[in-house]
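Quick one - inputs below.
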Amino acid sequence: MSQLYRAAAPDGLIQFPLDSMTLIFQKSSGITHMVADPVPAIIEVMAEDILTADDVAQRLSASYDLEDTADAADIVLARLVELCSLGLVEQV
Amino acid sequence: MLAWSRGTGVGQVARLHHLYLTVGPARFRVASTWRQPLDQLAALYKDYPASQDGYADFTVRLEPEKPWRRYIRPSVHISGDYWLPDAAPLPLNQSLLAAEMGMNLQMALGWRRHLLLHASSVEKDGKALLMTGLSGSGKSTLSAMLAEKGWRFMGDEFALLNPDTGMVHSFPRLISLKNEAIAAMQAIVPDNRFGPLMKDTPKGDIRHIVPPLDSVNKMADPAKPALLLFPRFGYDPALRDMGKSEIFVRLTQASTNYVALGEVGFRALTMFVDTVPVKAIDYQSADQAEELIDGLWGELS
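Output:
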């Protein structure tokens, strides 16, 4: 069975796009994260749902014009693992 | 003014002189074993508003490192409400510097009413120019120079950003000049506004200037931040744009209380980065810097 993930609740995060980077302030930890694409999009499409990396990749494909959909799930999975270590996503 | 305070050794009660100072929104009680730094502070801050009620936001304490160091090779240990465990003591002839460092330390570690940016600031027409950068960038000297040329001096150490209004508040302590900047400012500032020359301090030669009286009288007036500069001394004159990501990161590094303020600090700093124009500025002389700054200021709407 594929690993399930859930993003931190949207009302616990403040996103602020700068130039090529986006700031994410996490209220619970008080930590400011500076992230690049596609992290803001991943968190946005996850909303408050419990999803696999494939689910997230499909939602991204539906919402964004991805250049390489074949590798999308692998890229999303790598980002989800990183976001778990930051506390912005948790494994369920 | 005298106060009694427990201090220099086990079972001893040390008698401390003290002085109240109001600088911008912050009120300090500086307590010292020796009169010397307080006499110097009283003279240099004579035009600042007096404390009306004996209330202080912070206490700075200047005491001997060891009881016998009050008399034998006197050395001044800096402490107070906030202190650093590894702060090196200073000789008594640098006790004015110790007092100033002590006030800086209280603000850096304890102030919570504003987002603190390690920056100098000057004001003209209700708009503030901020300058931030590493030590040696010239931000203090530039603010001192501009203060003699029609700008209101707001501070050379901390700019206080109001998280509710986005306005910058003044914190016009004495202007701290280092090394070559001392001679440069002696050419344009009268002698009676200078404090004592302190040679061979841990920061090099230091001499303080009293800000212009108008800056002191208007220190309660905030200003809208209109331009932020990252000056760099010693390079061919140039102006460069900076990305907002780099600006944000460098300002978090330049703030001593960004983390402590949490969400309030985040909202204040993002609003600042989003709305205030920024330039990196290289220069080799004060005249070059002034010309570049005047040009940028003229372009502001």
